[in-house]
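[job 0412] stage=complex_fold ligand=guanosine-5'-diphosphate status=START
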Amino acid sequence: MANSLSDRLQMFVRRATGRGRLTEKDIEEMMREVRLSLLEADVNFKIVKEFTNNVKEQALGEKILSGLNPGQQVVKIVHDELKRVMGDESVGLIYANTGMSTIMTIGLQGSGKTTAIGKLGLWIRKKDKKNVMFIAADVYRPAAIDQLKTLGKGLGIHVYDEGIKDARVIVKNGLKYAKDNQYDVVIVDTAGRLTIDSDMMQELKDVKDILKPNEVLLTVDAMMGQEAANVAKSFHDQIGATGVILTKMDGDTRGGAALSIREISNIPIKFASSGEKMDSLEAFHPERMASRILGMGDMLTLIEEVTSNIDEDEAKSMMEKMMSDSYNYLDLQKQFKMIKRMGSISKILGFIPGLGKMKEAISQVDDKQFDRVNVIIQSMTEEERKYPELIDKSSRRRERVAKGAGVSVSDVNRLRESLVQQKQMMKQMSQMDEKQIERLQKNPQG
Ligand code: GDP
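[job 0412] stage=complex_fold status=DONE, emitting structure tokens
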């Protein structure tokens, strides 16, 4: 998310952390840079003003200028301020104390509401181990019900619909059905319109009265920038929302929405959705988002993603194996499977501190390439996979493998080289200090 804001602020961070002494004038200049970055990211100007004033005040007030590492301390203040405008603490999903929980989703047409329901259903089932049902009550957009049914089918989540046009009746009956069938959580899709109008608001109010939801989640399109915050405020003023799902974060290159919504609408952002894939929903953590914007990595999110998809012991033993001399093609294969379970490689690398720039270079390694490599490994004998030196020593073996995989011998050679390189890279990374990582960041190819 927010590539340009991130890039600009990361430049600021690099310059600031390198400074030994700072004067008041330096702070002024720094704040001009931050202000411009935020405005360009389409953050609401009132927020920007308050933001830079707060940072300045703290930087000048706490004797930071005469302290140790003043530049780094300013960065820390900027980080905390980013975190503050996004709501400080992360706010989790609220369930009913006893019995079935109900979630109502609201949002403009095209905001990604239906897609978000699918993702949320999956998220709740996976993270909170609950049995989820959807109620299709967006009776205005003709394709909405079919779209939800298709999503539900793919996820194995039951979708309740009635083929009638009255959302109130559908919700009432759907609720009874869910209770009778002992579902833990019901998520209701409601009418979306292109713009906010009074009919829609009335219908939403009625549905809310019937449902008495534990959560009213509003989907807001991050690509709208700060306008997203105004939309959120209108919905909130009339219906009352308990949380925002910020959608299309993958397409948002600026970041204005994430940084404006909380302050303008006062609704906490609970989830960020970033892609067409069903597993691209993340709980929103202001702290982590602030770190990510400043390029300070986001190890916690990575760890969470990895642990939800991967056995920790498995990952640990893989790392150890990679750094050992017996690392072989079987390990490489296992590693690919792990990466596949985690999602795309560029996404994973985006979380690792210091790899911000290098990521672009590495992300050219795409999933197709993985598949190609897999075919080559599959053409090897069990022994060859286990002992890579067998392949290294024999050109006859290399020819045989290439033929079996339908690739050229140079493809096999490239794979051999990359195995060696990987081992070397892991060894180097484990010995790197911060300065070296920084150099790598500045010169990703070198
Ligand atoms: P609704 O009208 O609010 O129910 O919106 P939909 O769920 O139908 O989404 C509208 C469009 O946005 C569809 O083309 C979705 O595929 C797309 N979309 C939804 N969420 C995301 C997201 O997180 N990232 C991207 N890139 N596209 C999304």
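The two ends are 26 Å apart (CA to CA).
[job 0412] exit 0
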